[in-house]
Amino acid sequence: MESYMPISYLNDFIFCPRSIYFHQCFGRVNKRLYHTTDQTDGLNAHKTVDNQTYSTSKDVLQGLEVFSEKYGIGGKIDIYDSRKKLLTERKKKIKVVYDGYVFQLYAQYFCLTEMGYNIENIHLYSMDDNKTYPMEKPENDSEMFNKFESLISKMKSFSMEDEFETNPNKCRHCIYNTICDVSVC
Ligand code: SF4
Question: 129 φ, ψ to 5°?
C-alpha cells in the first residue's frame, strides 16, 4: 500500500499542525507515556472495535482497514452497518461537535465509498450520554465538504519550516508542550 495520512491525524492537525510531527516521533512508544487521560479513555472506547468485538452480526463491519486513493488517507473505520447502510463514529462523550469529528467521519465515508460500499447515512455517537448526532453526507453540505478538502490539502503541503503562529491557549493544553521547541508554556 502507498503511504497515506492516517485519518486520526485530521483532528490533531486542526488542533495544531506541529502536533503531527510529535505523533510521528512517538508513534512507536507505549501510548501511555504520552496520552492524556481523555485520550486514553477515547482509545479504550474504540478498543472493542479495534479488537473486532463490538458485534458478531455479519452485517456490521468493525475496525475495517480502509483507504482512499483520491485523498491519500487511510485508517480504520469505527462501525459500518451494511444492512442499514449506516456509518458511525463513536466518541466517549461529545460536548461539542467539532469540525475534526465530522472530518474523521467524512474521511471514513470517502474511503468506504471509494472501496465500493454503499452508505446512506452517517452519524456521530456519544457513548457516555447515549446521544446520536446525525450528519449530512459531504455531498449535501458544500461548506463542510470544502473545508474538508482544504484541510487535506493543507496537511499534504505542511512543513515544519512553515511560518507558524503559536497559540498559547492550545500550547497550555497540549500534551507535547514539554518537548515542543516553539511551545509558549
Ligand atoms: S506545544 Fe503548542 S505549538 Fe507545540 S505542538 Fe503543542 S500546541 Fe502546537
Answer: -110, 10
